[in-house]
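Q: I have two molecules that I believe assemble together. Could you output structure tokens for the complex as a whole instead of separate predictions?
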Amino acid sequence: MKIPLQLLDDVGRDYPRKNAYLRDLANASEQGDKAALKRLIAEKDEHPYMVRLNAYLKEKDAFMSVLPKILEAEWEKAEAYEDPVLRRLEKDYLRQRELAKFYTPYVDLSYDAEYEARRATLKVNRLPVMIADRKRQIEDLRHAKSEQLRQDPTEQTAAKSRFRNRRNNIRRATAKKNRELKHLMSQGQISRKAVKQGVASNKKEAAVLVQAEKMQIPSVYNRDLIDNLNHQLKQGYRDQAKLLQDELADIARTTPVETTQKRPWKFLAGAPIPGLGQWLNGQPRKALWFFLGALFTFVIAIPYALGYGNYRGQGIAGLISLAEDGKRLDRSIIFMIEGIIAIFLILFAVVIYLFAIRDAYKVETDKLKGIRPKNAFEIKRTSETKGFPYKVSVPALILITFIVLVPIVTAFLLSFTNMDPQHQSKFTWVGFENYRTIFLGEGMIGSVFWRILGWTVIWTLAATTLTIIVGFSTAMMVNNERVKGKRFFRTIFILPWAVPAFITIMFFSIMMAPGGYISEALSSLAGQIVNIKHDPVLTRIALILIQTWCGSAYVFLLTTGVLQAIPADLYEAAKIDGANARQRLTAVTLPLVLFQTGPLLINQYTFNFNNYTIIRIFNDGGPTEPSLYGNLAGTSDLLISYIYKLTMNKENQALGAAIAILISIGLIIVAFVGYRRTAAFKES
Amino acid sequence: MAILNREVKKKSGDLYLSDKPPLTTAGKVGLGFTYFILIVFAFIVLWPIYQIVVNSFNGAQARNIILGGGFSFSLRHFEHLFQETNYLHWVKNTIFIGIATAIITVLIVSFTGYAFSRFRFKGKKFSLLLIMLIQVIPTFAGITAYFTLHQIIVGVVPFFSRQMLLVMIYAGGGIASNTFILKGYMDSISPELDEAAHIDGSTNMQTYRLIIMPLVRPMLAIIALWSFIIPFLDYMLPSILLNRNQDYTLATGLFTLISDQRTMNQPAFAAGGMLTALPIVTFFMLLQNQLVSGLSAGSVKG
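A: Yes, here they are, computed for all two components at once.
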């Protein structure tokens, strides 16, 4: 890295170098004078500037070692203060005075000295004001407190009775004013509202006057004063300290730093442990935070990944072995999940590492350019502003990682294994075996998949579309301008949305079981016994109708909301342009409703695609048809309930996971396309 | 007023006062048809609900609800529900899960919503998209993992029950959509308010607590209510995760009254279903506008 001739600060202003040796070096390398460069580097210590600088540094060391002794005597004075803050401020002031005295002559020699001198001078200017303010406040407080003790009881009672008299006078005056107002109203000169407002303002005025009178009582006044002073002592000091810190940070920003270091190395040296780079850069406070990250890495993430502290597994190694040679009780699935958790922990650690190294690198290269590293106060402020969104998202991140991501990754990996009834406790990797079974329709399991997929698609389209049509048309009818009793119909039609779906589905399930109301009614209509739950076609129709019953109310509600918001002028304009009722529907109503409820309606499709509840509750996927479905599923099973049966009943978790992954990929594609569309909509 | 009405009525006898054009015969038939459909549909909607209510009070029904058994008013199904089943346990479990879900969701989401609405940070857009896409994966995909995960967690934290896992799944699954809803709502609040607060020296936390939170409280309330209501509506996850009758929620508990031959009691189910539905129906009816606005805000903004 080349040594720059000019120094920069963090907003890009440039400063001339003070270090003449570095300036010469920069000049030499600028002109490409290699001989001069070599000579300069060889004779570094003989360079006149370096001689002066070294002398200064020696002097500084000497001064620093005698400083405590100098201060010792002076600090005696500060000990006299009772207030600890005052003591600290006074000590700091004395110290800064000495520092300012020492550094000021060297201001032109180096930026470090200038920095120290400016800091010390600023403090020497500001601290006496703070000390004086605080002294005065403490004195006032002491005075107020002693006043409070010296109150004369007789005078006190006199003051109180005086106050009561005056308060009564004020009240009487207010009442009189109010009477006058009411009188004016009775004469018809002002309105009732004006009286109301007048009375309210009179009341406020009186309250202010009473408060002022109350302050005339010495004890009340004193108590208020004490409260005030206490607050000032606390908050006023805090504000002043913050202001001082701000000014100090400003000095750090406008005083560059010079270093003989040529290229960054500390970030690399500190790379093995997060925080070490920050430490080397001279930012201990920041380093402390990164050390916490290091602690996480070395105490939690890495040991866990290596298999220490696992519940049963072997960390990441468990992902490969899947408990193959483990004990009889070791289960592959545990090894797999612990491996996945280990990977996520390592990922977190990697993020911490990258973040730490990048930060250290940035601070270090900035320093080479001349930008002084931030001080603790500024770091704290940055972490409060820029770091805030990251900090507050951590709980969400943890929850999503362990509750959402880990199970999904598990399902993904599981789909590449052979976890089936024969391999419940120990299973191995089998590659794309499960996907091949599904796609080629191999065996019963594979062929059933396609059959169920077919019904799932029919179900999703039929049930959702019918729901939307019914919901939309009932909403249209109820909102017909000529229909009376809108409120009545609306209340009834919303009911299915408000009743929990599982209750109605369970009830319909009872009604359609043999002997149930609906079964009996249909049987007597048809003249023969109708067993809905034993007939695949009837079961499917019943499911679609029940879902329509449950879901249409929601569509009704949404559509009604949109319909009521469509301005009537749109229809009038359409009418004037000669549109008939059908055209008004297709050109005005439908586009508006679909545009506003579109995403929610699409959600309805994905919801029904995964509508496990209705299938499980109504007939548990039945009726069965062993010739087509074997004992794997029933004729009304959806993919989602097929997954359930494969996983929970048939112990074929691997295949269930493969189907789940296929479904997820399909849904993600649909959602992604949908998202892109809505994003495009929003921009246009 | 009464006089005025009479006058209008009298006039309307001989004068056509409506601002709508008079109906043609076809129009009258159409209107009649509309009324017919509406009434039929109202009947279809009300009939099952009516049956649930009637059968829960019908002492003439035994363990199965059958047609033509007559009606005699009795509370014995409710007695059965309270004394012979774990109904009160189920209510308690459901409420516990609901409250815990609501608290965790609101705590987490109020921060993420604030962060996504008010801050620019690296990875904001990417993480939004990622969370959106992950969200569409059915919770079902992870069933195998949940059991093992629970086993592992219990190894570390012995008192971590399956209900708590359920709470975590509900809360975790709701983070994304609720963050969107809240973000959308917060975006509508002028950022000048927080800028003013920042200039006056308030920290981000103070700005949120004192400025933003009071303004978004209605939406936070809706999010809390929706989260609270989830276990009352969901059958799927409790049926997978909970395995002891006294741990069940209302949905899985009531299902045992119609699915299991040993515990079968359909009128008692009707009674329990009615008791469960009553508060929820009241709640949905009273707050329908707010609930729907919350829903649509989330989906359209997403």
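A: One point stands out. Chain A has a mean pLDDT of 84.
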